[in-house]
Structures are given as structure tokens and as C-alpha cells.
Amino acid sequence: MDTVLRGVVLDASTHEVIPGVTVLLKGTTTGVATGYDGHFELRVPRNEATRVITVSFRSIGYVTEEREVRVGTGDVVINMPLSPEVLGGPELCRPPRPWHPRRFYHRSKYWLMRPFRHG
Asked: Residue 3: helix, strand or coil by DSSP?
């Protein structure tokens, strides 16, 4: 009899369910995605059912989390909160220095007009 991992994946800050999270047994190709209600059901193969396994939770916009779970003969329930991944800040809002439109315009104007200058 296979062991079944069941659970729900929640947003750590709002405690709302997250649909479409990939739940994967680390080191294998065995995995599922959470449903519209954030619930998942993952069957663990018999050869891995009597040890500690690592389960990976991945979703776009959230930090990838891994949790070690000891599985035996019974079913295991996991409630997994995922933290939102915050990217950027002021450094991503500014354009890169050498490509500022005004600087680019003035530099290109200088180099394009250089052969026609007398002096």
C-alpha cells in the first residue's frame, strides 16, 4: 500500500490558498500540482515509503520551500505556508546609467556631427 501525502498550500502573509503550486518529491520526477482550492494529494512509491523524504513546493511569485517528511505506513498531512518573493526595489526602478535617453542623445549627436566640424 502506497503512502499518501495530503495537504494544503497557503500564502504565509494572507493565509489564502494558492492554486497551481508544484509539489515534487526531491530527486525524483514524482509530483503533482495543487488544485483550485490549494489542496494536493501525492502518492509516495513503496520503495521510498519507509524513510525521510524531502518535498519541494514551487510556485511563481513565491519562495521555493522544502520540507523533510518522515513517511511510514499511514497517510501524512502537510499544511505548507509559502512566503511571497519580493524582487526589486529602487535599484530596479532606475534605468541603467549609460543608457539614459538624454545622455544617449547628446553622445550620439556629438559623435555623428564630429566629422563635419571644422576646427
From this structure: strand
Under 8 Å between Cβ of 77 and 55: no
**CA atoms within 13 A of residue 11's CA, in its CB half-sphere:** 13
Amino acid at 105: Y
pTM above threshold 0.85: no
pLDDT in tens, the chain (119 residues): 578 889 999 999 899 999 999 999 998 888 999 999 999 999 887 775 468 889 999 999 899 999 998 887 678 888 999 998 877 665 555 555 555 566 666 666 666 666 666 65
Angle (CA) 58-34-27 rounded to 5° is 45
Compute the CA torsion angle 109, 114, 118, 119 (nearest 10 deg).
110
CB atoms within 10 A of CB 31: 15
